[in-house]
Specification:
By secondary structure, the chain is mainly alpha-helical. It is built from 19 helices and no strands. Helix 13 runs antiparallel to helix 14.
Length: about 400
């Protein structure tokens, strides 16, 4: 890869959302914004190797895309009212990136995020639109990530953009009273993207999708940077960073998933851990009651603070899970809490707490039961639980881990 290629790749990651957001605000049309932004990047690919990288790549791309958008409106709406609008646009000063205040650009990006995650759109459409318009991923990339046919994914994005246009969904940050609910939806979409990368659902794909986790972290940084006072935006970013830091140790050389207690902690990314811990401490210092993502981040901070799994402060982990249960009394949270209970009060107490949880179709439930039964010496029951977990698991790396654990249970 040449130096220019590297610059183009970096600029695409850094500037795509800015360019699309600026165009969407100026022209009020996501199709025009997306397509002319893509054309501007294609022009850069052609010209920058010969002409050199401009001093302000983002401003150059925005100006180029703006010109292309005006030309497109002229072509498609000649001798119509839109043609006159295009002429008026052409007479206004063109965007030149460097002259635009950073706050305005950042605000445009925030508007774009909230538009893509509008509650009027179905959640799958929000995910796809966010990855395409804000993340700059291609339709094939998104389709592969979420096991959807490209044509289906393309139609999903097209319908979402059409709904935004026909329903008159405003391209703006929600009002103060609507903001908390809308931020919750945005963060949920980013968490869905991250989770698909954390453990891919496609058995034909690698167990961990670093491309998706990296993109989710990048988008979470964007939202946190735009809403620095929002505790849950900070909490989600901290949570992602602390989980992402463990990615180098999560899959063995043989392709088997490695459980947290067995991971090589020396392979963890200490830079990400330090950043995640700093975010957690900053939120604690505010004295404000934490939300769900902040508590999850705090739990992961305890795990990543321990030099060895034997050093884990399970009392603190359990106290945090007790706090989380009050915020989210879901069966999955109770399942995870039981893991901490097992470390403090023993597997028998934890096993009793799993009874009655409606999680028969959830393979981590059976994997947890299997491990607790193994520790109690109930090998036959443990193997049966492992069989159920293996049958439900979709990821080959996770299956490999469970098969090995089952064999150990049989041997024990």
């Amino acid at each position: 890869m040449t130096d220019v290629d590297e610059v183009l790749t970096r600029v695409h990651h850094e500037e795509w959302a800015r360019v699309v957001a600026t165009l969407a605000r100026r022209f009020g049309d996501l199709d025009i914004a997306e397509e002319t932004a893509a054309e501007a990047f294609a022009t850069a690919v052609e010209r920058w190797p010969a002409d050199g990288v401009p001093p302000n790549p983002g401003g150059w791309l925005t100006t180029t895309a703006h010109r292309k958008a005006v030309d497109r409106i002229r072509r498609e709406a000649r001798r119509t009212e839109k043609h006159r609008e295009a002429l008026m646009l052409a007479d206004t000063p063109e965007p030149v990136g460097a002259d635009e205040p950073a706050g305005a650009v950042e605000d445009d990006r925030l508007r774009l995020v909230f538009t893509c995650c509008h509650p009027a759109l179905a959640v799958p459409a929000q995910v796809a639109l966010t990855l395409r318009m804000v993340g700059g991923l291609t339709v094939p990339e998104i389709a592969r990530a979420f096991l959807v046919e490209e044509s289906t994914l393309g139609r999903r994005i097209t319908r979402a953009k059409a709904k935004i246009k026909t329903a008159g969904i405003p391209y703006r940050v929600p009002s103060r009273e609507d903001l908390p609910a809308r931020v919750t939806g945005v963060l949920a979409v980013l968490y869905l993207i991250f989770n698909e990368g954390y453990l891919a659902s496609d058995p034909a794909r690698p167990a961990v999708r670093g491309d998706l986790t990296t993109e989710a972290v990048r988008l979470a940084r964007l939202v946190h940077g735009l809403l620095p006072e929002d505790g849950e935006a900070a909490g989600l970013l901290a949570l992602m960073l602390l989980i992402e830091a463990r990615r180098p140790a999560r899959v063995s050389a043989s392709g088997e998933l490695v459980a947290l207690g067995e991971q090589d902690r020396g392979a963890w990314d200490r830079r990400l851990i330090a950043e995640g811990h700093a975010l957690v401490r900053a939120r604690l210092a505010t004295g404000q009651a934490p939300g769900r993502y902040q508590v999850l981040a705090a739990i992961n901070a305890v795990h990543t603070d321990a030099p060895d799994v034997r050093d884990t402060d399970w009392s603190q982990v359990l106290a945090l899970y007790d706090q989380l249960v009050r915020l989210d009394p879901s069966p999955i949270v109770r399942l995870n809490r039981a893991v901490a209970v097992a470390e403090l009060d023993g597997p028998q107490v934890a096993l009793a707490q799993l009874d009655g949880l409606p999680l028969d179709g959830y393979h981590p439930f059976h994997a947890t039961r299997a491990d607790l039964l193994r520790r109690l010496g109930r090998s036959a029951e443990s193997r049966a639980a492992y069989d159920r977990a293996i049958a439900l698991a979709g990821n080959t790396a996770e299956k490999a881990y469970l098969v090995r654990r089952r064999a150990q249970s049989a041997g024990g």
